[in-house]
Batch of 4 targets.
Target 1
Amino acid sequence: MKLRKICVPYEFTTESENAVQTAVAIASKTSFCTIELLYVIIHYTPGVNTGGALNIASAVSMDYGITEVGKITSVGETYVKEQFEQIRNKYSLSNVPIRFRIIHGEDGINFADVYTQEVADLIVYGAENVKGAEDWFLASEADEIIRKSKTPVLIVKGEKPITSFEKIVFASLFEDVTPEVAFTLRYWQELLGSKLYFVKFVESDSHSQYLQAQNEMKYFAEKYSFKNYHAEAFESSDVEKGILEYANNIKADMIVVMSHKSSSSWLKSMIRSSTEQHLANHSNLPVLVLHE
């Protein structure tokens, strides 16, 4: 794998700005990477209920007092281009090429479909935390992007962008990690200059389980020639909470997980997908999802 292009869906929010800064920090690690900011302008049909959807075109139309749909779109696109130029100028000293692209879509367009159809080596998406039990009933856009993307997805959370990646936590069962994911993980570690923290969760405080988990992680590290890593077994009955607790304890900068394809076991598939979903929705740390 080589990082040539990063796609950043941009929505004129603090989270999107954090995603851009994070993408610039990553792209600056290599001299071959371009960042593409992607924005979708929706063409609403007059008189049709849009369900409260927000887009920059409608916001601009309110500022300028314009009501005709064609003019709304025209002013909206001009405004977006002006804002993108300001972003490009802001990061001009980083020497990271930043391009922008505007996509026009009809009301009801699926944003995740648009983002994941882009040809890119990484998608960096700035998202808000989902509160309470909302993610049990409503799939967040971040979750949908993870589910539909075939390329790695980095979900950026928190009030500040992440510009340092000294400590990366990789939580896994390890015996089911594919060679592609292992080599991709090693690429990211080497690119970012990070120390990897391998974590495997055990169900009880059993010496034999701890020893088996340590051996499995050591075998994994030696098999794929990992260096600069630490392996640790961690007791937790809740995988999601365990990952977040461990990452916070060591003051990690990022969490990496592997997204699994649909399993033959419905229950196993549900457990795995919900763990990825909950981390994407609840973690304040960036979550990088690698696809098997």
Note: Strands lie at 5-9, 34-43, 98-106, 122-126, 153-156, 167-171, 195-202, 229-235, 254-259, 287-291.
Target 2
Amino acid sequence: MNTPPLQPDDPRLVRLGSLRDRDLRREGLLVAEGRWLARRLLESSAAEAVAIVAPRFADEFAPYADRGAEILVAAEEALSQVAGFAFHRGALAVARRPALATVESVLADPRPRQTVVVLPDTTNVENLGAIFRSAAALGVDTIFLGEQCCDEFSRRTLRVSMGAALQLRLVRSGNLAADLDALRDAGFSIAATVLDSSATPLMQFCPPEKTALLFGSEADGLAEHWFHAADTQLTIPMAEGVDSLNLAAAAAIALWHVQQNSLHTDPPRLSKEPKILPNPPK
């Protein structure tokens, strides 16, 4: 790929460099930073994808132009200007945010065995990204996000999730209480994870065919009304003197237990190797 590198004052770079997370969300865009994550975005179904890469990666990204992506080459310092910092590692990609799933699409899912995650008010983008990554790794593909949840496609959420946010069925709920009722009517059992000695220890929980796991916020856990809205309350027993686990860690433990201990859960669908580039990213 012999395209001359763009200069820092190129209008395309200047505009992208001026966009911050709040601007990206308002304009319906997302940014994937780093070579591996940029490739994952280009391999997804995201529309209007543009990749900006350092000259050393130009040939590696050139084949994505055949998929309709625009590939721009820019010097390292110009990339830092766009990213706002030097984390880009030689590549970043911008695309339209994928459409979120609807409650109706989840209710119409014919699979008899499903686990979904419900997050009423997760406000830490790193925790949200880590939950996305754990869910995808353990074969859970549906996550409900309450109105108070942070941005599911922020730069850091996307980065911490290692692109898992792009492969999950995400539902941004406008009325989470009503959506939980709809899930229950569709055969889901609602299980709330809590810090309560009277709750069922996680290892004693036998997951039903359809389970919705409800996780509280980082600071305050689950609000009382969510506690009472659940069919079951679960807790992770901990050593004396330890009062809680990090939200993302607790979610990973609970999801692992549910997925491993349900005879009715389909095995995780392993991600495919990139169709264009056979060499794994370093």
Note: Residues 267-282 have pLDDT under 50 and may be disordered.
Target 3
Amino acid sequence: MITPPRKSWPWAKVLPLDHGPWAGDVRALAARLYPARAVEACAALCDELPCSLLQAVPQRQYEFLVGRWLARILEAPCGRQGRAPLWPPGLTGSISHTRQLVIVAVAPMGPRRCAIGLDIERLDCDTTTRTSLARCFTHAERRLLCAVADGELLGFSAKEAVYKAVHAGLGLQPDFLDAEIIAVDSRRQRLVMNFGMGVDAQLQVNFSQLDKHVLTACELDEALSPKTWLDLASHVDAMSSEQC
């Protein structure tokens, strides 16, 4: 069993994470994975897996287990609601992973913080993956991103962070084109997006690099007021009613 949490683990290594693309009260941890030990880790910790992952490949199970281990170290043990983490009362958080790295961030909820979204992507991903990213952007977005190193990978990660935050805050599942990148500031390491779905709202996504990965984070408390979220929820409810 993972409980009680231990910062030393035979199946992953915690990485120093002194800063990241988020506000000062966000707590985060990362861990480097050892894919060759995935099967061993899953066999030792199979009791920690939810029923929905019992038939998953060992690598997916391994990434899940390491994410939950990091959450416990952060004193934010999370359950599972569908495919998303279910955080303790008063906290919001996000988990992202690749085959090499898992990162978890948690933060207190407040009057203006609905949720946070976090994403990591490998900078050394293959050509096929990079080619497939083009469908996630408009022509205008691609023109903006081509001026930035690893621009489309950064843009994809930023949209993933936004969608995680939106799903956590409202339970919505936007399309990639529902958030349009309108500005990229490499010096300040941030992007600005227009969020669609019938609401004129701007979202800010901050970014950095960690262990050969691009790391992006979106905090809705900085981007949308509570009133805007209520307007968005009302709009989505109205759209759903019209479709019934």
Note: The chain has a mean pLDDT of 82.
Target 4
Amino acid sequence: MEGVVKPKSFVSWSGGKDCALSYYRATETNRIAYLLNMIAETGDVSRSHGIRTKIMQLQAEAIGVPLMQVKSSWESYEAQFKKAVAVLKEKGVEVGIFGDIDLEEHRQWEERVSRESGISAVLPLWGTKREQLLHEFIESGFEAVIVATKEDLLGDKWLGRRIDKDFISEISNVSGVDASGENGEYHTFVLSGPIFHKRLQIVKSEKITRQGYCFLDISECELVENELHQARNTKD
């Protein structure tokens, strides 16, 4: 609606499919001003997905939104998250966007931390069927690859797999694995989509295993033209 002022917001950002889709859905009612990404104490990789911080920065550049990266341990995560939100609030941010789907414990944490920080929490994906979200992600034009898996459930053979309809069909038949990876069975990294001005192209990567997880360690990417973004600009 014309005349409605969209609140300045940040997205709790992992670089994966759920936060990207929540960003996309949230743009209808929110103005996304920042991406908030929690990283390891060493500062070299993201806290949740193990993606190199420089690759996360390149992803944010492709989207065209400032990325705020904050170091923390799992023990200091909440305190550091709140400090980051306090900084964003000083910049006029009123809303935090989160990508959880149906894990009540996560929702309670996000709503409590947001409330205690003086902002509102919005969960655009909440309550939507998990497989429906996978199809929406693909049909919206997003492109993502698997960058982390639980070694005992999926191993390293799934690393680098594209999230497409064939993937949905195959992953749905794997015993003990949620199709959306909502229980941490796998994590993704988004390369392109409707929120991207540029597309990320992986140039160099290798598979590594540590502490029960397999990772696709992406060490080099480059930005190329995003055909979806170009098509929309041409149509406009």
Note: The chain has one domain: 8-235.
